[in-house]
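Researcher: Next entry in the queue.
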Amino acid sequence: MSYEVIVVGAGHAGCEAALATAKKGHKTLLITSNINHIADTPCNPSIGGPAKGVVVREIDALGGIMGKITDQTTIQMRMLNKGKGPAVRALRSQIDKKKYPWVMKKVLESQKNLYLREGMVENLIINNHQIFGVELADGTKINSPLVILTTGTYLKADILVGDQRRREGPSGQKASLNLSDNLKKLGFKIMRLKTGTPARLNRYSIDFSQTQKEEGDKEKHTFSHDQKAIYKIKDQEPCYLLHTTPKTHQIIRDNLTKSSMYGGYVTGTGTRYCPSIEDKVVRFADKERHQIFLEPESKYTDDIYIQGFSTSMPPDVQEQMIRSLPGLEKAIINKYGYAIEYDAIDPTQLYPSLETKLIQNLFTAGQINGTSGYEEAAAQGLIAGINAALKLENTSPLILGRDEAYIGVLIDDLVTKGTKEPYRLLTSRAEFRLLLRHDNADLRLREYGYQVGLISSEKYKCLLRKKQLIEQTIQQFKQQKLKLNSTIKTAFNKIGIDKTKDNTSVYNLLKRPELKMKDLDSIFNLKLSKDILEQIEISVKYEGYITKAKKEVANLKKLEAIIIPSDYNYDKIHNLASEAKQKLKAIKPRTIGQASRISGVNPADIAVLTIALKKDDNIVTK
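Model: Structure for this entry, 622 residues:
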């Protein structure tokens, strides 16, 4: 019994990884402990949001599946930050918690070269620091020259509610009992992390009249670049906004010692950017109230998710807390909130390809690498799957730059800086976020998807046509001089443009903030699609900022072009600081650029290292 690739875990990372290798023609086995929990969403049933929504667009541009399934299972879609600049706009979907896994399972089952199997992987078959397969809990051995671990939060997972601890994974699933211990024996540094989830309420026990309704957008959106929206605007499920009360905060303060976290029962490190409600009350004691959103989980159930109210308090305290909120005075709790602790590996033990440094042909992706979030997991799974397939094909790995994708920022942060808490991708982590926008993910990444074999030639030709149309139209605008006839003057007066000279180029005119592409489209009947009009408008209006960002990228690329040999001896550089040597030897950066981002390696160290490479004639550029 052998396969070309084995993927362990069928969460969002595992699904993307297995589909990528199978689509590329490699016989792939996807092993999961419960086939009915494929692509589960044990926490918030939503996809996207700030930075994360752009990641989903990037996944789709590269040939991944998350965006397409999100579009098919959305129950509410919103574009966030519409009133702000394009760098921070992001799509967010409330998905159907029941339908999303059903659709994903169908996709997996219909994929050629992909096989599904239930089982719990508890050990790896290793010989001379190279992977040769996996061993299941029942002793079954399955051979493969390449393995991708996407174990999520299941490694020695513990569910905590108050002072109660039970060894199980999310949604009451079995935990992996031995795999993390066996990874530790192989030399992997293991971290203990914590995350959590709020209670779920019965929809019909809530008085929504005391809340503020949050509707979906009145225009349709999609994460996928290839399909039209299939949902109906009027059928979107609303969410509801409310706030905590002084009574809520008092109940929490009175019962802090009963919380798993503040009672001393938690050993793992929690996520800074998604704290529990008790953590918010303690850390932000000056805040009189905190936002809470009531979000539907599915059209097939009556469960309502309390976004922003994650807790590990005992059930009786959770009831008091929830019923202190407006509209929830008579709320029925369908499921109590809990914290979950689990093992993860230190991600600095990975190459940027997501292959482990300790074991050849062993890749890891998702929450095992210390991240939080479905989107971060899916992105890693896709990259791990692509690079696993490329390794089988004796081809160089796909490594995205920080200037090319949020996925590049995510992976570089993990393998270069590491993390001591569940890592969450934020727009502030990206130096070049004006270049990494929601609207241009296909322009940035679809060619890579085509090169690695996940994007068809037909889709690639569509991309080339789109690029050509954008460039041609911009050049046309630069050359086209405006003739102020009565029709144009009337149109401009309606917009609020009253000081325009004859012979002004359309390009320069479009730089004016009050003029939009839709206005030009109505005047000149351009007959261009909405996404092309958007690209042209952003390219013209933000030209100065984009040009500046590209100059900064060019400087970065000079450093990224200088390759450091993988076996380079840092000890022979006498002027290099001891901490820098220690960090460089541990992380083994690929380039001077990556070395410059390592915590503890300062600019002086980089200068000394660069000079040493030159003296050794080791300067190699990509």
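Model: The radius of gyration is 26 Å.
Researcher: Noted, moving on.
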